[in-house]
DNA sequence: GCGACAG
DNA sequence: ATCTTGTCGC
């Protein structure tokens, strides 16, 4: 069905060089380790674009493992950075951080819409935000950015490894959250490991393709969009 | 040189 | 991400 593949306008080489260096620097701060205590509150982060030059970032906070919504906030602002594959965080993270400041609750983990470690330089938006806030984070993406993987089994809960084609390193896991639906890509961002990331994503799944944190953030973005005008 | 390319 | 019609299945 994908007869056409998206075309991405060439990005400014100088800008790409700067951002790449910034990601390498941030990676020095990244730590992937087992999560010590079970989280009590988990947040879901997602952004949408009402117009081509404005961004709407939403953050929802749910209890864990009950997954009851306890808070939802958003921040609406301008966007200057264009979308460049591999540098999504520089376009969305700033506004997400502004939304985070409005939060009254202190979540224990952040589930971000996009990749974490499963990134060319292991610094996807989930890792980017986790490092900046120095908080445990994981990424849940709907499409692969880099890496190869076999198809996970049909049964919900099935996993398949996402590996770097060159090094063979495990960079994420493909998780089948729903029967007969394309799987999601889970990877750690900061302060937690792959096993924890996948387990959390699965324990947050309630019959939909997307885990509740990310799914609800996306859902509320639609509601807040009306509130804006 | 030829593809691939989160949201 | 966003736009956008019809269609399939529970």
UniProtKB/TrEMBL annotation:
Feature type site, description Interaction with target DNA: 83
Record: residues binding Mg(2+): 46, 113
GO cellular component: cytoplasm
Subcellular location, record wording: Cytoplasm
Keywords: Cytoplasm, DNA damage, DNA repair, Endonuclease, Hydrolase, Magnesium, Metal-binding, Nuclease
InterPro entries: Endonuclease-V
Family designation: Belongs to the endonuclease V family.
Name of this protein: Endonuclease V
Gene designation: nfi
């Amino acid at each position: 069905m994908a007869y056409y593949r998206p075309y991405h306008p060439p990005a400014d080489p100088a800008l790409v060089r700067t951002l790449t260096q910034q990601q390498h620097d941030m990676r020095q701060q990244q730590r992937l380790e087992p999560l010590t205590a079970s989280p009590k509150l988990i947040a879901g982060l997602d952004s949408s674009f009402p117009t081509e030059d404005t961004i709407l970032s939403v953050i929802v906070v749910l209890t864990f493992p009950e997954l009851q919504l306890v808070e939802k906030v958003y921040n609406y602002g301008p966007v200057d950075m264009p979308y460049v594959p591999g540098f999504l965080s520089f376009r969305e993270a700033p506004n997400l951080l502004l939304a985070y400041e409005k939060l009254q609750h202190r979540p224990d983990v952040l589930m971000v819409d996009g990749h974490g470690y499963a990134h060319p330089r292991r610094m996807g938006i989930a890792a980017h935000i986790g490092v900046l806030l120095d908080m445990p984070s994981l990424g849940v993406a709907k499409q692969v950015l880099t890496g190869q993987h076999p198809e996970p089994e049909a049964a919900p809960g099935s996993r398949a490894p996402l590996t770097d084609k060159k090094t063979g390193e495990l960079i994420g896991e493909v998780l089948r959250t729903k029967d007969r639906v394309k799987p999601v890509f889970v990877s750690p961002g900061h302060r937690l490991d792959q096993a924890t990331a996948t387990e959390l994503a699965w324990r947050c799944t309630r019959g939909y393709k997307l885990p509740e944190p990310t799914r609800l953030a996306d859902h509320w973005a639609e509601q807040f969009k009306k509130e804006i005008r």
